[in-house]
TrEMBL record, chain A:
PROSITE patterns: ABC_TM1 (PS50928). CDD domains: TM_PBP2. It is found in: Cell membrane. It comes from Nostocoides japonicum T1-X7. InterPro entries: BP-dep_ABC_trans_perm, MetI-like, MetI-like_sf. This is Binding-protein-dependent transport systems inner membrane component. The keyword Transmembrane helix applies.
TrEMBL record, chain B:
SUPFAM superfamilies: MetI-like. The lineage of its organism: Bacteria, Bacillati, Actinomycetota, Actinomycetes, Micrococcales. Residues 71-288 form the ABC transmembrane type-1 domain. Belongs to the binding-protein-dependent transport system permease family. This is Binding-protein-dependent transport systems inner membrane component. Gene3D superfamilies: MetI-like. Keywords: Cell membrane, Membrane, Transmembrane, Transmembrane helix, Transport. It is found in: Cell membrane. CDD domains: TM_PBP2. It comes from Nostocoides japonicum T1-X7. The keyword Transmembrane applies. One of its GO terms (cellular component) is plasma membrane. Its main location: membrane. The chain crosses the membrane at residues 70-93, 105-129, 161-185, 206-229, 267-289.
Length: 286, 297
């Protein structure tokens, strides 16, 4: 465990070897992402040749263009967007109220509520989806955007309350009270003082919910049984199923994956730092 | 404001959370418990009232060799993946601590890229990598002299199917472990390490006797979470089955429940297996939740 200072004292070939090992591991972990992007630009003729092509020279945007103009893609995109945005709005609203209760009030049942949230958060969707499927079919909500939204909201609310709780606790009550001494009503004080200070926490939570709902596969697979009501992950699954039975146009499949993955990766990388500082903020006791 | 007792306001504030959780999770759990005591097959799908059969579903499960195969397989897969993930992730974290800034940042970015990949998108790439016709894996194996790899279908046999699945699951989970453990390592005070070095402790001894005890809590939490997550692994297995894997010999708990319920319409048995899985998860989660609750109060 020698730091850079020790390395400067006596340069060691070992640290060069370790550096090389780190680069090799980086290549291994990044390879699938690179391979997806690379294949997305190559025409099927090139991908079907016996030796692989490692750089997309001579490639084109044809695969991407083909996917974007596909009707199935557009409909899956719209459904995914609708479910994701509805879930973000519903989950943030519900979880924010819950976080307020948990961090600003001491009440009977508070501890059981928090305990229940933490336990529920660990429940596997795989242990529940059969019952959720029956429930949704009974109330006629299979293949319904609203039905899927309800299930997604319930799935993300526990962690979102937990995350927001730390942010709410981070805003001192004194600030609000000072504003009230200065003549603002309690609602005004909350809206003008506390709410703006919570914005980073709400953004971080919104991103968390967005990523969960956008990427979710298991519940969607069970609930959205019609081809017309597929979300993007289910639409991608269609390509995997097709690959089992016939020669696949892998260029198009990788273009499709790229379209689903790149926005998520960019989003994730941009907010990653803010999110982890948000999570650290969430560690402050409420 | 924070100490007013007896006010209705906090209860009103948690009401929406409670309602949505009871509707979307509580009701299904209750339905599942009830159905696990009923015979609920295809006849019931068409409106016949279900018959109460008491513990029959559970008794049948206990005697069902197929279920036991699936349970043992799931636990073995989960243990192998969880320990491999934590071992590799921990090793990568130690490596990141030792190397210079440039290779460290490159490795961190690569891990973040893998972490950010949506599961289904990652699965399409992996299916393409291991594709038996034009996949780069077989090409590479032939290149290094394993001629038998040409045209080999990795998903056709259970053993190689699970090897592929394990590699994918570990690849997906290592970034979280490596970055969490690395964050834990940066908390280890430099002075302690230097003092140990002055006292003549070798690099391995410092790792074993100074660093390990200090990051043991992070390692144990990460291992526990990994075990819970790997026990419920579904998407990766389902999609590899879709890509041409043999289904019956490759089922884990999640895909087995899916097959029982949506495939065969046997909701009674599916519910009993689901309850088994839920109980197993709650027991495993208990320690993790308790440690979080301790921080809370």
């Amino acid at each position: 465990m020698t730091g850079p200072s020790a390395t400067r004292r006596r340069p060691r070939p070992a640290s060069v070897a370790l550096g090389a090992l780190a680069i090799v591991l980086a290549l291994v972990w990044a390879f699938p992402v690179y391979w997806m992007l690379n294949s997305a630009f190559l025409p099927n003729v090139v991908l079907q040749s016996t030796s692989p092509t490692f750089l997309p020279f001579g490639g084109s945007l044809d695969n991407l263009r083909h996917v974007v103009t596909d009707d199935h893609f557009t409909s899956a995109l719209l459904i995914s967007l609708a479910v994701t945005l509805l879930t973000v709005v519903a989950a943030l609203f519900i979880a924010f109220l819950g976080a307020l209760a948990v961090s600003r009030f001491r009440f009977r049942g508070r501890k059981s509520f928090v305990l229940a949230l933490l336990l529920i958060q660990m429940l596997p969707a795989e242990g529940l989806f059969i019952a959720q499927y029956k429930m949704m079919s009974t109330v006629g909500m299979l293949n319904s955007v609203v039905g899927l939204t309800v299930l997604y909201t319930a799935a993300v609310v526990p962690f979102t309350v937990w995350m927001l709780r730390g942010f709410v606790a981070g805003v001192p009550v004194d600030l609000e009270e000072a504003a009230m001494v200065d003549g603002l009503s309690r609602t005004q004080a909350f809206l003008r003082i506390t709410f703006p200070l919570l914005a980073p926490g709400l953004v971080a939570s919104a991103v968390y919910v967005f990523l969960q709902a956008w990427n979710e596969f298991t519940i969607a697979l069970v609930i959205m049984t019609d081809e017309q009501s597929r979300t993007l992950p289910l639409w991608l699954r269609g390509f995997i199923q097709a690959s089992a039975s016939r020669e696949t146009d892998w260029g198009q499949v990788m273009a499709a994956s790229t379209l689903v993955a790149v926005p998520v990766i960019v989003f994730f990388l941009i907010v990653q730092g803010r999110m982890s500082s948000g999570l650290v903020g969430g560690a402050v006791k409420g | 404001m924070s100490t007013r007792r007896g006010s209705r306001l906090p209860l009103l504030l948690i009401a929406p959370s409670v309602v949505v959780l009871v509707a979307a999770l509580g009701y299904p759990v209750a339905w599942q418990v009830r159905t696990s005591f009923q015979h609920f097959g295809l006849r019931q799908q068409f409106g016949q009232p279900p018959d109460w059969v008491g513990l029959d579903n559970y008794r049948a499960l206990l005697r069902d060799p197929q279920l036991w195969t699936v349970v043992v397989r799931s636990i073995a897969f989960c243990i192998v993946c969880a320990f491999a993930t934590v071992a590799i992730g921990g090793a990568i974290a130690v490596l990141m601590k030792r190397v210079a800034a440039v290779p460290r940042v490159i490795l961190q970015v690569a891990l973040l890229l893998a972490w950010a990949m949506p599961v289904v998108a990652a699965m399409t790439v992996w299916v393409w990598i291991v594709d038996w016709r034009r996949g780069i894996l077989n090409w590479l194996l032939v290149k290094v002299g394993i001629d038998g790899a040409a045209g080999h279908n990795w998903l056709a046999e259970p053993a190689s199917f699970f090897a592929v699945a394990a590699v994918i699951v570990v690849w997906m989970s290592v970034p979280f472990v490596a970055l969490s453990v690395y964050a834990g390592l940066t908390q280890v005070p430099q002075e302690v390490l230097e003092a140990a070095e002055l006292d003549g402790a070798s690099g391995l001894q410092r790792l074993r006797f100074v660093v390990m005890p200090l990051i043991a809590p992070v390692l144990s939490i990460v291992l526990l979470l990994q075990i819970i997550w790997d026990l419920r692994v579904f998407t990766q297995i389902k999609l590899l089955q879709d890509a041409g894997g043999v289904v019956n010999e490759t089922n884990l708990l999640g895909t087995y429940i899916y097959q029982l319920g949506t495939g065969r319409g046997d909701f009674g048995t599916a519910s009993a297996v689901s309850i088994f899985m839920l109980v197993l998860t709650v027991v495993l989660s208990w320690y993790y939740v308790r440690s979080l609750m301790k921080e809370e109060s």
